[in-house]
UniProtKB/TrEMBL annotation:
InterPro entries (UniProt xref): AB_hydrolase_1, AB_hydrolase_fold
Domain spans labelled AB hydrolase-1: 284-550
Keyword annotations from UniProtKB, A to Z: Hydrolase, Signal
The organism's taxonomic lineage, starting at the top: Bacteria, Pseudomonadati, Verrucomicrobiota, Verrucomicrobiia, Verrucomicrobiales
Keyword Ubl conjugation: no
The protein's name in its UniProt record: Alpha/beta hydrolase
GO MF entry, a single one: hydrolase activity
Domain of life: Bacteria
Length: 562
């Protein structure tokens, strides 16, 4: 890249990064127990005696974690047992804190589970979890590579922290699938693992025995403790925040390289689950837009998790793709991934016939390609001969074979388009779009073969789509009046699919003449949508509270409709 291009590129990048959030951060509190104790009422009488003794044990344990972890564990458990026996709900925050710190030690140092000589005052029990238990939301603490007490984390930049007060320590647990012999349920988990919201409850069934039970906070909200039904504590935002922090540690340049050098990032392309597989949940697939990645959905996800029904009923998947590729390539890749996901559910004995797919911006274009009835009729608009005889690069033929000949993923019952340029965006035609397009590097052999030979078998529309230098990458696909987009838009949506639109107007209230700053209303509007909602937002409409509220409504509607 020339130095002369650098200032122009800087301006381009500022436009591409509209959907990225820069103000989010996660920090570990330096003295979390002090923060916890501040929220406790002034102790008196017996409560005061129990509180001060337990508080001292916790402070001692904190100072011993590095030098004498077994002794620290013993003190945390002694404090938790003392507070549990007191049965005073006003002391619950300190009980939960001691439980969380003990759980952190047990996961980070597994040998503590069997104890260390005289320092071991408690025998730790982590009950085996059966399949029936797992369906009820129970998980063995030993399954995790790391756990962190959510209350020890300060989350910066989050307007709403979705939490629930109750018994147990609200934790963020890191689950990493096995590198070899991966369980079939973990097929769609990324090799780096996922962060999960869990609640750890410790009880003391016999003297000297501490029993740890872990509950999936997205499945279980209540638990029986000492013969009483109790609400479980939970922090649903902290795992999202840690996932975002991990994604951001790569740097925003990774997403931009996915635009400019997509071939380098194709190995990461795929569908990824953000939760452990639960056969009772309905698939919800989220597809990001240009110069972005799945972390763009963090605020949306946090907003969805405020709805207990959505939280409990949906299995969430993200689709990641390098956004510099032509949408033909990424659209066909998404279709293959969805068919693979559908096959996975069938192998598990499940018919997932009410899945929802949501696409933002360019992701909405890929989403649109999954719900339309492509087939021989569509191909005949592009070429005069069968696909297998067309003089095109093998990758191009492969893409069209997937789009035109493979069956539509029938698991998709409903689609939601957010700020989607169905008819393109004028910005891609303007100088910003032209500069970005000129910087995208895709090997030409991956696009077509001999243009002269290829053109003989193509219709005029086919030549415009396949042989025009203007149609060879993702940003070009966003050009206003792009013939490829016209072809997609002219292909009917399957009768079985309901679809919805969420469109931004920047709060100007001037629809149908409005725009979100990138996509005009006339491009985002779809005839036949079951609902269309205008929100006072720019192109990052998927993060706006009104858009999230509408998405929650649609997801609940989907559950009722099926």
């Amino acid at each position: 890249m020339s130095r002369a291009a650098a200032p122009i590129l800087a301006a381009v990048l500022s436009c591409l990064l509209l959907c990225h959030c820069s103000d989010f951060a996660v920090k570990r509190l330096s003295d979390p127990v002090r923060v916890v104790s501040k929220n406790l009422p002034e102790p008196d009488g017996n409560r005061s005696r129990v509180y001060h003794r337990a508080y001292q044990l916790v402070k001692q344990a904190q100072s011993m974690e590095s030098s004498a972890p077994a002794a620290a564990l013993g003190r945390y458990l002694e404090a938790a047992e003392m507070l549990t026996e007191a049965g005073d709900d006003q002391l619950l925050p300190l009980t939960n804190f001691a439980t969380g710190q003990a759980a952190e030690l047990l996961v980070s140092q597994p040998d503590l589970r069997v104890g260390h000589g005289r320092e071991r005052r408690y025998r730790v029990e982590i009950p085996r979890v059966t399949r029936a238990d797992s369906l009820r939301g129970k998980i063995a603490l030993s399954e995790f590579t790391k756990v962190v007490a959510a209350e020890t984390l300060e989350l910066k930049g989050w307007k709403h922290r979705v939490m629930r007060g109750g018994v147990g320590a609200a934790m963020v647990a890191h689950y990493q699938p096995a590198k070899t012999g991966r369980a079939k349920e973990d097929q769609f988990l990324h090799e780096s693992g996922i962060f999960l919201p869990v609640t750890v409850v410790v009880d003391f069934p016999r003297r000297g025995v501490a029993r740890f039970q872990t509950h999936d906070s997205t499945v279980e909200s209540r638990v029986r403790v000492n013969g009483r039904q109790r609400l479980l504590s939970a922090d649903l935002t902290a795992p999202i925040a840690l996932s975002l922090e991990k994604a951001r540690s790569r740097g925003l340049l990774e997403d931009l390289r996915g635009v400019f050098y997509p071939v380098r990032y194709v190995k990461n392309l795929g569908l990824y689950s953000v939760q452990k597989f639960d056969r009772r949940k309905t698939p919800l697939i989220l597809v990001h837009g240009l110069a972005s990645d799945p972390s763009t959905w963090s605020t949306t996800l946090n907003g969805l998790f405020t709805d207990a029904e959505v939280l409990a009923k949906y299995q969430i998947y993200f689709f990641y793709y390098p956004t510099g590729f032509p949408i033909r390539r990424t659209g066909s890749a998404l279709k293959k991934e969805l068919l693979e996901l559908q096959g996975f559910y069938h192998k598990m004995g499940i018919t997932p016939d009410q899945a929802v797919i949501v696409g933002h911006s360019m992701g909405g274009l890929l989403t649109s390609m999954q719900v339309r009835n492509f087939g021989p009729k569509t191909w005949r608009k592009i070429a005069t001969i069968p696909l297998q005889k067309a003089q095109l690069a093998e990758q191009v033929k492969k893409d069209y074979r997937t789009l035109m000949q493979l069956p539509r993923p029938t698991m998709i019952d409903r689609a939601v388009f957010i700020a989607t340029p169905h008819r393109g965006s004028q910005m891609a035609n303007d100088w910003i779009g032209r500069v970005v397009i000129s910087l995208i590097k895709i090997p030409q052999q991956a696009l077509t073969l001999d243009p002269v030979k290829a053109s003989r078998s193509l219709t005029e529309l086919g030549r415009t789509i396949l042989l025009n230098d203007d149609m060879t990458n993702g940003v070009q696909a966003l050009k206003h009046n792009n013939p490829a987009l016209k072809l997609v838009a002219s292909t009917p949506v399957a009768d079985a699919v309901s679809y919805h639109s969420i469109i931004g107007d920047r709060g100007l209230g001037d629809s149908p003449h409005s725009s979100d700053g990138v996509v005009a209303y006339r491009s985002a509007h779809l005839q036949g949508a079951q609902s269309e909602v205008i929100v006072p937002a720019g192109h990052s409409a998927h993060t706006h509270p009104q858009a999230i509220r509408e998405l929650r409504r649609i997801l609940r509607l989907n559950l009722k409709s099926n």
